[in-house]
């Protein structure tokens, strides 16, 4: 959970100085985050959306190995000097264990407006022929 720090006009400059003094930005830069995600399942596929605000498409990589879908991304920090830095810059990683019922070869991904959208299709099951019992008279 991210801590939200509010600044009120009544807080004096000295209080703000001591608040900033005890923040450790190096921890934030070394951290690897799990991106927030939503998962939807329907009859044909699983749909997964991951929030990767500020990440560029070329800084995202995905692969499937041994039934595990791995996603890695990085939001690179600019060289600007920040007065306040509250957003996360660094690495994101997320892995999903895929069920055997998905078609790993047909996974598709699209990245738009900071959202990575995955379509993970299910394998098409062969329709089983109905077995009809015949009553013997």
Can I get a quick summary?
This protein is mainly β and 137 residues long. The protein has helices at 13-21, 25-30, and strands at 32-33, 37-41, 45-51, 60-65, 68-75, 90-97, 108-112, 115-121.
Textual characterization of the structure:
The protein has a four-stranded mixed sheet. The chain is mainly β and 137 residues long. Strand 4 (60-65) and strand 5 form a beta hairpin. It has two helices and eight strands; from the N terminus they run ααββββββββ. The protein has helices at residues 13-21, 25-30, and strands at 32-33, 37-41, 45-51, 60-65, 68-75, 90-97, 108-112, 115-121. It has a domain at 33-77 and 87-121: Immunoglobulin-like. The termini are far apart. 11% of the residues lie in helices and 35% in strands. The radius of gyration is 24 Å and the shape is rod-shaped. The longest helix is centred in the first third of the chain and has 9 residues, at 13-21.
């Amino acid at each position: 959970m991210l801590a939200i720090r509010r600044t009120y006009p009544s807080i004096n400059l000295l209080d703000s100085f001591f608040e900033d003094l005890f923040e450790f930005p190096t921890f934030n830069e070394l951290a690897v985050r799990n991106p927030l995600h939503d998962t939807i399942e329907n009859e044909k596929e699983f749909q997964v959306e991951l929030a990767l605000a500020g990440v560029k498409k070329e800084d995202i990589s995905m692969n499937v190995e041994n039934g595990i879908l791995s996603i890695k991304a990085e939001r690179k920090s600019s060289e600007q000097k920040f007065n306040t830095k509250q957003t996360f810059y660094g690495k994101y990683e997320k892995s999903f264990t895929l069920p055997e019922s998905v078609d790993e070869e047909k996974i598709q991904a699209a990245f738009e407006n900071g959202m990575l959208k995955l379509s993970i299709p299910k394998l098409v099951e062969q329709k089983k022929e109905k077995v009809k019992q015949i009553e013997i008279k």
